[in-house]
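Homework-ish question, so no full write-ups if that breaks the rules, but can someone show me the predicted structure for this set?
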Amino acid sequence: MELTAEEKEILKGSKAPGCQLAMEILVEIGEAYQAPRLIPVESAHIVVSNYKSSCEAGIEILEKFVSLGAKAVVPTTVDPAGIDLDWSESQKIPKDLIEKQRKIGNAFRSLDFIPSWTCLPYFFGQFPRKGDHLGWTESSAVVFANSIVGARTNRETAGMDLAISLTGRTPYHGLHLREKRWGDLLVEVNLQRLTREHLTILGYFTGLQAGTGIPVLIGMEKALRLEDYIGMGAASAASGGVALYHIVGVTPEAPTLKEAFGQNPIPRPILFGPQQLMETKKRMCTGQAGSLDAVMVGCPHYTLAEIRDLARLLKGHKINPKVRFWIYTYKSNILLAERLGYRSIIEEAGAEFIANTCMIVTYAELYDFRRIMTDSGKCAYYAPTEIQAEVIFGSIEECVDAAVKGEWLGLF
Amino acid sequence: MLGKPVNKGVFEGEAIVSKTTFGFYRSIDPHTGIVRDKRNDLFGKKISGRVLVFPEGRGSTSGAMMIAELARMGTHFGAMINRTTEPILATGVILARIFFNQIIPTVHCLDQDPLEIIEAGDIVRVDGDKGEVLVRKRD
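A: Not a homework solution, just the prediction itself:
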């Protein structure tokens, strides 16, 4: 790999030992993937933010960088923590796990990472522009930045994220290259109506079809609300490994079908119609009809508009006392929801906000829930193993309805 | 077999082979090195000190830290061979070396399909400097 004079200096350790160590990781990875050089990035997003995904190794690595005096050289946001320390029920979580989370938070402070604690760095912390090179982790944020914004980032990994932030660079390969961003799979959407729920199911379906490929979607030219694409991308990144998709006529790199595929051949379309919609929804529900223990929404974190929609649905209703209803988002969103009056409506109905964490990385399994419901395709994919419960996927309207009744009546 | 090196070093040991894609995130117990993901065909088996052969990685990008954690605990696999070693796996073995001084030679993109050639129990020598893999069949 070709390094600049400055990069060679950093690698020699003349600048700062923390930066040198980070540079070593980048060079190793770059050479393994035959990247010709490193490129500067505008920002980084870190996934080593909770103990579940960091392990002890992650904490040791973070503390090693701290001891060497490393600092973020580009704006760096962080993914959700494992615990909301301000939530009264967090006391149920074993003390040593709380201590681990504190250690991660302390390291982040030393490294100058922005304590955003959210999977929506583009709503809180930093917003990329088309063509920007980024070094992001968090599969749902990566797919949003690449697809909806047209910025360029690989699905960076735990550990690499730190190296990118502390050097401001990443190996120049994969989705940083224009010719690696062309579509290789065509999905034709044929639905009368496209709701937020439909988009989430479509994302899940697309992920199953595409794996780590680059799907191109047609038949959905009408632009929907921005937040509806968040859940769609997150689902496709979970059920498959989608890091970039194109919607012809909507997303920035796909004004036409031809441009979406670049020099790749345009394949025969895979149909997504009412039948595929129902089949996929069925597949996303791994639970049986019956009494419900919890509803969990906010994966990815709920936006303010989604909180407002939920407040409208819950207004004047009471959630069955046997059902816990948890909404995950970042702290400042909860403060805004409070100012706007949404929070009191939601809490009067019996739902609760939990800040800066989510159902996947926190310790929801400690509750021994038997059956939970969610409006998130990503949660539907990960919860069976992470929360160890039966999981029902439904629209937010269906989630509210089941929460009020205290049971889920089944799909049809 | 000859392929591309991902992580340097040389290791020889007994092969353990998975035919499924392998996500590391929370799928191996770092204390024992035993696979605890029921969806994996190596469920219940110990990977420590073996030459781990599987097609490719999948799943959460946090998997890299899990490999580093295995190295920290000393329960890591001795070497790794994949059809393609994607960045989650590569970062894991590189972190293991840089931070925990554990060398896990890793080779991918071989001129023959390692899953066709290598069977569980074969003695395999992985040379991560040259990108070379030598297989001695089990008797």
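Now go work out the reasoning yourself. Hint: Chain B has one domain: 4-136.
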